[in-house]
Amino acid sequence: MNRIDVTRFLESLYPPHLAYDWDNIGLQVGSLNKPLKRVLITLDVTRSVVKEAIEKRIDLLISHHPLIFQPIHNILFDTPRGALIKNLVKHDIALFSMHTNFDRADGGMNDILARKIGIKDAKLLDETYEIGRYGAIEPTTIKELVAMVKEVLELDHVRLIGDETREVSVVGISGGSGQQHIIPAQRKGCDVFLTGDISYHQAIDALQMGFPLVDIGHTAEKVFVEAVFDVLREQFPELDIAKSGIDTNPYQTL
Ligand SMILES: [Zn+2]
Question: Which fold has domain 3-98?
Fold first, then answer.
């Protein structure tokens, strides 16, 4: 099997054209025109993940968040990113990223998140950006919703902006940074909106509007790892596929 057999299959599920113009997806480092034995799947590419890839003699590393995002002008081995690129090249590990194409695809990030938190018949949340999902859940309080979300998405904590006693039955969700979808979520009739990267000022505004938000961070997107593992396992049963055991969440809550 060739590396490109796997990436072509993934691109058929999560088409590259779905990625936003500002994004940088696909092959980031290395060559796809090589034999493939071992794949490793991760949310982020960090030093620990690259170390794990080297130890497991991985040929193809698949990440959600791109390692190379802003254009780079040089590859300096003494910088964190440069050192990662150097190690990937040195060990002939190809790095392939699926970011907003995975988020926006049918069956991708937002469909998975919506299903996991119990949204039935999830619909498109933000028509302008063509991203996010919303729909009805079993009526509950925000407090109970948060407890369930933490459990099913395996999150240590979330940040709530709003009143936890409020009753909710329509929920919106957008994995990753979804601040720009707050107003569309409110317009769609959501009782609460779940996303990551909600800024202080956005939180103040939401509280004034009386629109509850739950910040689930980027860590909620680790569902990527399981999802990609499952589709590859089914399509390529003979392939050696591993899920990274590294928790790449950079934050600690003290
Ligand atoms: Zn993200």
Answer: 3.40.1390
Neighbours of ion ligand 1 (CB under 5 A): 176, 218, 221
Distance 82 CA to ligand 1 centre (A): 21
Centre of ligand 1 from the C-alpha of residue 56, in Å: 25
Q: Which tokens in the block code for residue 234? A: 């089914």
Distance 6 CA to ligand 1 centre (A): 23
For the chain, which residues make up each domain, given as ranges? 3-98, 106-218
Per-residue pLDDT of the chain in tens (254 residues, 90 and over written 9): 999 999 999 999 999 999 999 999 999 999 999 999 999 999 999 999 999 999 999 999 999 999 999 999 999 999 999 999 999 999 999 999 999 999 999 999 999 999 999 999 999 999 999 999 999 999 999 999 999 999 999 999 999 999 999 999 999 999 999 999 999 999 999 999 999 999 999 999 999 999 999 999 999 999 999 999 999 999 999 999 999 999 999 999 89
| Sole residue written with tokens 């949310």 | 43
Q: Check if the beta carbon of residue 60 is closer than 8 Å to that of residue 39.
A: yes
User: Buried (b) or exposed (e) across 204-215, using 16+ Cβ within 10 A?
Assistant: ebbeeeebbbbb
CATH number 3.40.1390.30 is the correct assignment for the domain at 106-218: yes
